[in-house]
What does this fold into?
Amino acid sequence: MEDVVNLEECFLDSPPYRQRLARCDTYLQEVEQCLRTVLKTARTVITGTEELSEHYNAFAECLTELGRLEANRPTRETYQPFDGDMASWTAGQHIMFLAEELKRIETARKSFALQLETVLVDPLDSLARTDLCVAREYRKRWERSGTEYLHENSKFMSRKSKDAGLAEGAAEVASLRRTYHEASLEYAARMGEVLGKEQLRISEAVLGLCQSRMLLCEKEHAVLDDIAPNLRLLEQFSATFRTRVNSLHDDYDIQRQTIMQKSVNRYNPLQADTTDGAGVVDKSGYLYKRSSHAMRPVWSRRFFSLHDNCLEYYTMEGKNNASTVLIDLRLCTVKRLELSDRRLCFEIVSPVKTYTLQAENEREMEEWIRAIQTSIREAIQGGVDSAATPNPPRSESPCQEMLSSYLPGTSIEASLDEQQRRRIRAVPGNGSCADCGMSDPEWASLSLGILVCIECSGIHRSLGVHKSKVRSLRLDYWEPEHIEIMTALGNERVQAIFETTYRESEVAFYRKPSATSAHEEKEQWIIAKYDLTKFIAPWTGGNVARAVQQGDLATCLHWLATGHDVNSLQDELTQSTALLLAIDASQWTVTALLLLWAASLTDCDIRQQSALHHLAHSTTLPLPLLVSILRRNPPLATPDIHGDDPLSIAVRHAHGDFVTILRMFQHDTRTVEDPGSGVKKPPLRRLLRGKFYRRLTPRRRRSLSSAMEELSPFGRKHWPHRRSHSHTDSLSGVGIGDGTNISRLKREDSSRDGIASSSRSGEDLSQSGENPSRSGEDPSHSGGDPSQDEEDSSQYEKDTILDPNQRPNQCPNQGPGRNTRPRDREPASE
Ligand SMILES: [Zn+2]
It folds into this structure.
């Protein structure tokens, strides 16, 4: 360093010294110039690197997306030619992985750009801006003080020795010289300092640059090492794909031609091509399906598919959210159908509904029928035991839920337990199928009271539910009364009715089939036996009324099977049907049987009392039977000639359970009518058109019509739309599962009528201090009362608003003075 700047020489200030200083100065100026260019380009590199990084990242994102698509491709094929962790990866997963690794490289590149900033740009910038500039400032000071000194010095040198101010001039020159020397020293020292600093900074910066670059390279290498196995796998993928793609074109070409040749006979819908097609089991294709609207059937094209002994079809054609409906063929029969308006039709009869289908040509229809038949046969042979899970219970209505909570432990319907099954099987004759004799039959015909094998059960089902209502001992849910029918009848007794005139010895057209007989033979037999009743003993005019009243189920069945109208009058005096007689005699098994044979719940006796009125009188009515009757949607609140509806009769008899259940169903009916629930035909409107309406007195009709007006869209705003509202609304008086409310209801009722209620509410009465001593009902009390209607409504008010204190707890929409009564009342008083 002393070569450049030697502070000793400052005082001497020789020309070589000055030249050296000048050279250094020029050098520093050039360095500054150059540094500015370096900084400028370095900044460009940094921005460029950052941009490049961003572009690469965006690119990696796109690659990831592409990989994701590839990984989820609809025709995903799995190649497993590789071992190790990634063996099961698809090409798409590899692409996604590689894209992620690319992002790792970009992260490294970004930190490289950041490092360039700190190790290169920042130090060099500070060198150029601060240190070099400072050196320049010192040089200027040095030059300035030099000029001043030289000027004074030359003036001083020209003075004579006797000059007066010589001493003062000398002092000034000395001072200036000192200043000049100081500035010179300062400048030289700074110069030396900057020269050293500059060298260090530049070498450091370049070193930093190289190190950062190397770090980036290392990271890239690490990533490449990591992805090497993926690259190899992807390479193998590519090789596999390449071979396949090369042959794809030819393969598809051949397939296309083969398929075209195969289907050449299938285009013309009129051409019946009957080659091959036998033994098809898994068939699928389009069929036209008739909608279940009885009045205006619509035929829609639906895709059906037959597999695993089930028939499945798509409900919504051509939509992504198409759902499928599964038909369990074990319980179905299939047959050709001659329709007047459509050709090539066949139908599938299942326990739930009948599907009417149309094929596009003769061959298709043949194939479908044959395939379904094969499936049914296979299902019956192989699938009996495998299907041990019972059908799911029917979806419960809100009412049903309430019922379950109200009648805990009283399941309305349930699958049979082993004991019940044993009871049914122990009935004489039930050890073998009633029709073909196959042992251990598992299916029951409820309306006939017999057990049959699965094959015969399918034929029974095809007879229709009005002839034979089929249930499985294992798969279905049973109502309690049906168990009673099954134990009261049984194969032996029913055979005695339906096979009385059958003689095996005769060379008859019909022959009783055995377990091994052909399906057609069994079908013929069952149709002849139950549908055509070929072998039944003629009805000789027995006393049906007595049989009903005595609970003689076999006679009842004989009477029904010989084609008599179940709703014909059996007691001319009271105009009662068999059903009403059975209810009056508390013959619940007969009642259930008559209901299975479609006994009418709307037919009334001479007092215009329907079955529900009669039930309301009964004290021994099993609640499950009541619920299954209510499920058949009987008119809930028709008035009899005295204006009493079933509810008021039950209230009078203090049948708390009956009242509660009936109210729940009334409430349920109204909930169903709610437009939000999507039911097309409100029961009320349907009843308005029925014979029910025709039987009403003109006055009743008027009040019904006004109720209908209230139901119109304009009157609906007060209608309880939400269930929670309507619950509180209609059930506020009769709490569900709350015995106190029910007893309160009874209490109110009995205090109104001035009679004590039955012993069931006696303790409530005594608690409330009312007089329980007055007892004994007076049925004639309400009969023939001219003010019945008014009293009726006041009674209703009491029924509904039992406790004035409860009023504010009701639904906020229902103000205390609101006229809600008629609306609540009318659906119950069609
Ligand atoms: Zn059978």
Notes: Residues 632 and 796 are 25 Å apart (CA to CA). The first strand starts at residue 284 and ends at 290. The pocket of zinc ion is lined by residues 433, 435-436, 438, 452-453, 455-456 (CB under 6 Å). Residues 8-159+170-244 form a domain with the Substrate Binding Domain Of Dnak; Chain:A; Domain 2 fold (CATH 1.20.1270.60).
